[in-house]
Design goal:
By secondary structure, the chain is an alpha/beta fold. It is built from 15 helices and 13 strands.
Amino acid sequence: MASADNTPGPGGRGHVLLASDRFKGSLSAAAVTRHLAAGLRRVRPDVPVVELPVPSSGDGLAEAAVAAGWRRVEAEVSGPVGRPVRAVLAVERDTAVVDLGEACAPRLLPGGRPRPLTATSLGAGQLLGHALRGGARRIVLALGASAAADGGAGLVQGLGGRLLDAAGRDLPPGGAALRSLHAVDLRGLPDLSRVELVLAGDVTGALLGRAGTPAAAREAAEEPDAGRDGVRMLDPDLRRWADVAEAAVRRSARDRPGAGAGGGAGFAALALLGATPRPGAGFLLDLLGFAGRARGARLVVTGEGALDTRTLRGRTPAGVARSAARSGTPVVAVTGRRGLTGEQLRRSRIQAVYALADIERDVGRSMRHAGPLLEQLTVAIADEWLP
C-alpha cells in the first residue's frame, strides 16, 4: 500500500502529529486530521495524537487555528448574497486569522447556485473590521475560494470605503456593478498604519489574467453552473475597478502575486490596505506552531487530495516534510492519488505514501467516502510505523 522508503524510524513513545492539508472537493484540512485521529485512536489507543490542520490554500485557516488552540470568536456578517451568516475568526494575543471563506465561500450560496455577477465580499470586510475593533495588530487574511468575483470591492465597502457612480451614489454589491464605478472614497477606512496585514493561501496569481480574462472571474467560472458567458461580462468591470482604485492610491497592484486570490480580494488588500502576501506552507506552519508540536513526535502524518508536482511547490506536505526533517522525525503522507515518483518523494523527505486509490479505485466513491477511507488507511500506517 505504501510507496517510497517505508523503513520505520527510531522507536519511542512520543506522539503522532497529524498535519494535513484539505482533500479538495471532499474534506477540509481539519476534517482530514479528525478522521486520521479517529482511525489511529481506534487501532492504537495508547499512542497520543495531536491534530494540526494546515490548509495551504487558505480555505479553513481560521478553523485550523482554532484546532491549534487559538481562541474562537464569532461575528455576524453579510454573506455573499447579503443574507447574514455566522462567521468565525481565530485570535491569539494581538494576532487574528480572518478567513475570507467564512463570509463568502461558495458553500454559503443559497442552493449552491453561483452568482458571480452579484455575489459580494462585503462580509469579509466586516470580519476584518471586527478583528480590528477587537484589538488585533496583526491580521492574517486567508484567501481561499470565493463566491464573489468582485475584485475585493465588497471587502473595501465592508471596511467603510465607498464606491461611487458618476452621480455620487453608492454602488450596489457585486462585480457587475463596477461597470458604473466613477470614484472611490476611502476616508471611512480604519487607520491601518500600525497594523500588519498578511495575505495567506494560494497568493500567487495576478488580478487580470491572459487573453483578457481576469483571474478572479476565471475562479468564479470554475464553479459548476457558474455561467461562463456571465463571468466574461466581468472583464471590463474588474479592469475599471483596478484603474479607479490604483489611481486613487497612486499605487499599482493588479499584476502583483496574490492580487487574483479570493476572487480578487487580494487586489483590494494589496492596493488599498497595504497588505503583504506570504505564499506557501512555511508561513502557515510557523503561524500554527508546527515546530513546537512536532518536538518529541515519533511520526508525522501529512497529506492532501493529490500528491503531484504541485505539492513540491510549497504546499503543505512538502513544507511539513522539510520542517520535520530538521529533527529527524519520519513523515508519511495520505492522499487521494499519488503522482510523484519514488525519487521525488525521497527528495521531498516523505518516506511513505498511503492513497485512497489503493483501497477504492472509483474516484467518485473515493471522494464521497474519503473520511472512512482515511480511517482505513490508518490501519496500515499503524502496522508499519507504530509497532
